[in-house]
Design goal:
2 strands; RING-type E3 ubiquitin-protein ligase ppil2; 112 residues; single chain; mainly alpha; 5% strand
């Protein structure tokens, strides 16, 4: 241990006081943290994270136009809107409510 201190002291000019070990350790940790890479390589991406995924086949999903009933999927004549913002045609929702008594989209009982 004595020779290690002697080797360290010989690198500094004469009369220089050495900082405690903890200060040197903090500086070393700071230096090492700055040296760490902040990115992943192409090899890491492909092997560890799966790389580019195969194209997912697109379904034939199409968003319902705003002027269509959410129950019959047809353009409505007499629109009725629920508190959640779901729009139904009055001619389609009344028979549904009489038969099932629920909201066909959310399943809540007696809401409309």
């Amino acid at each position: 241990m004595g020779s290690r201190n002697h080797a360290v002291r010989s690198t500094f000019p004469a009369g220089t006081l050495l900082a405690p070990y903890s200060v040197h350790r903090k500086r070393l940790n700071l230096f090492l943290s700055l040296q760490r890479k902040r990115y992943i390589t192409c090899t890491e991406y492909t092997h560890f994270y799966g790389g580019k995924k195969a194209e997912i086949p697109q379904s034939s999903f199409r968003r319902l136009p705003f002027d269509h009933c959410s129950l019959s999927l047809q353009p409505f004549e007499y629109p009725v809107c629920t508190p959640e913002g779901i729009v139904f045609d009055l001619l389609n929702i009344v028979p549904w409510l009489k038969k099932f008594g629920t909201n066909p989209i959310t399943g809540e009982v007696g809401v409309l």
